[in-house]
Amino acid sequence: MNQPNVVESWIVNPELSKTDYEGKQPPVDNGHARLDPARYHSEKFMALEWERLWTRAWLIAGVESDIPEPGDYLVYRIRHEEILCVRQPDGSVKAMYNVCPHRGNRVVFGERGSLQRFTCAFHSWQYGLDGGLIRIQDEETFKPEVVAHGPRLTPVRCETKAGLVFINMDDEAPPLEQRLGLPEGYLEQYRMDRMHVVRHVVAEWGANWKNGVDAFYETYHLHAIHPQTQTVMADIGTQYDLYPHGCQRMIVPIGRKSPRVPDQDEVDESLQYMMASEGLDPDAFQGSARDVRAAIARHKRQRAKALGFDYDHFTDGQLTDSWATGVFPNVQIGMHPEGCFLMRFMPHPTDPQRFFYDAMTLFRPAADPNYKAPDWMGVPEGTDLTGATRPDTEHVPFGGEANLGEVLDQDVQLLNDVQAGTRSRGFRGALWGEQEQRLRHYQREVDRYVNGEK
Ligand code: FES
Ligand SMILES: [Fe+2]
Prior knowledge:
- The protein has helices at residues 6-9, 14-17, 43-54, 144-147, 176-179, 209-216, 222-225, 269-277, 292-307, 316-320, 406-422, 437-450; strands spanning 59-63, 72-78, 81-87, 93-97, 112-114, 118-119, 126-127, 133-135, 155-161, 164-168, 196-205, 239-242, 248-252, 322-327, 331-336, 339-347, 355-363, 394-396.
- The chain is α+β, with helices and mostly antiparallel strands.
- The protein has an eight-stranded mixed sheet.
- It has twelve helices and 18 strands.
- FE2/S2 (inorganic) cluster binds at residues 100, 102-103, 105, 120, 122-123, 125.
- FE2/S2 (inorganic) cluster is lined by residues 100, 102-103, 105, 120, 122-123, 125.
């Protein structure tokens, strides 16, 4: 893989550098209705979602850094479909169904690879990187009328943005820019195009995909399910913002205690650990717990030059906090200048009560090769951070040990129980509060698709 010069890669588009994306968005009135809980368990609703949502919405199929060179491809699996996203000789990315038009065999196997042409293993028909037909084996044995059907790999719409590869199975859908409700430049400022995958886990969980999204779109449950976060995350200080077309985000202050914690001054062990992980000496720290977040931001700016980081266009909050951004319908990106967590909540092929938690950790190398990924990134010891090797995806079967850390283990257990409850006859639909406004916002958009309004 070609590595860009790391120092040069931190220089950000100056047009984006003056833009402040931190501001609170105006409120959106999504009403107060209880939505029918069948959405979490019924096969009928799952079928409607397939017909009207997944096959009509723009979906994040992968990251561009996984396919840097012409002929590099990745396979996006969603329910029973497989979509092949291929880097073209002109640098663009084209997508096509991974199915041979002759008799329907899969054309490539595996999740990623690199080829200069695609040869079907069944009867050796060949296709170019753009999916066009190169050769029919024994073509003279086909009636010209059969060949006249013009076989090729069936194209799927594909656009790239901010280092992400989007696909849309609907030929009639509006272009991505009309459907991605985030402000222009919002995703681009993090330069995910210069980040690469250092960890990729796909784990099967026991809940509907929307129960998964719901649990990751609010901090309301932190005090109850993840009490260990109370000393480093200001859960009820979270800012929630809603954007058009079901997109939304939350800004969770990190390095600051929850207002629920009585002692707001003691710099306890977890704050000390956080400081140390960011390169700050906790023993030399003089202030109270209220000062830690600002101290981390200050320290990051001070050492930025030595590491080749350019934080000039980021606010202090962006250096410390979690900007968890929801890309409709099924994605959350935890955005940090040094790296991003791209989480996709993928529907199960057949079971509305299962989903795949698909999480990629993206990392951007520093100029100083001794710079290690901060602990909060959860990158396993010994991981190659240079981008030279793309780690294999770790597949974790249902109930398997995912090694994703304590917080996610807690979520796995929680979601089993929530799924069981949302299926009960006694559950009449969620009663969402304002800390859960992201949930209502994207779920209302899901309904617009399912009801045929989009
Ligand atoms: S199915 Fe692909 S060549 Fe026959
Ligand atoms: Fe959680």
